[in-house]
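Practice problem: predict the structure.
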Amino acid sequence: MNCTFKRKLPIPKELKEQYPVKEEHAKIKAERDEKIKKVFTGESDKFLLIIGPCSADYESSVMDYVTRLSKVQEDVKDKLLLIPRVYTNKPRTTGEGYKGMLHQPDPLTDSDMLKGVTKIRKLHRRVLAETGLTSADEMLYPDNYRYLSDLLSYVAVGARSVENQQHRLTASGIEIPVGMKNPTGGDVSVMLNAIKAAQGSHTFIYRGWEVESTGNELAHAIMRGRTNSQGQNISNYHYEDLLRLSEAYHEKGLKNPSVIIDTNHANSGKQFLEQIRISHDVIHSIHENGEIRKLVKGLMIESYIEDGNQPVSGTVYGKSITDPCLGWEKSEKLIYEIADIL
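Answer:
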């Protein structure tokens, strides 16, 4: 093989023993998981906001953000469940650039995955212990999930990973909601096939084991827009898109038909301020049609402390070093607006 095996990383069991979750925090997670699950099964009419930085870059500013979010959660708890985006992996189309905290625990230094895998566990653990919130993260590497399985309440499979069989099969063995994004080309049937696979039972290889999964009935769709053959962004959050998705769900006979609308990426053309308008547009569709109300379980919003983004070498505290995000003042206002109009 044309590669170097640098060192053996600790297995998840070892890292969990070194950085355990306290019993009282495990109880908080279990309670949060149950509330979130009931949204997807239709037993709860709460609305989800999966909200936070494009990428969890610096622990201090991420914790600052999530602490602010936890205070707002208390105010809107009758209407909304806030799930902080603590995305510790950053997929790259070409493989170049900052790849997230797992790879680079310090964005300005070289990759160190031993430090990275430890740091991401400690960060998610801090979020739970200090704010009472439980996080969402992206499953860039299926093998990585077990390092965080006792801390996460939501997992996303990205647009570039949704066709990968290992992601689909791993999702079938996860007990929390797993969102499957439509691929970058926008083929909804690919996303629905991923959901069908994740909802089924399978036997497969995982971390050197032969495992059997029972299926994840909480696997669901994330609509993030698409890019056409000319490189143009085409949104897919509109009223007609949601009705077509509802029909496709029922044609496939999938369980717990659900969708989260990603308000950024190709839906906004990465114009981060558009996330405000898109959020209102989706909620208008919810009010207009009962089927859409049943289908749409929440929104995914890229939000940080400061508006926009900056280079990796930038020095503005709480400003994204990856995709542009909605700043805190606008985000807080939007959360309260969503709670008021639901």
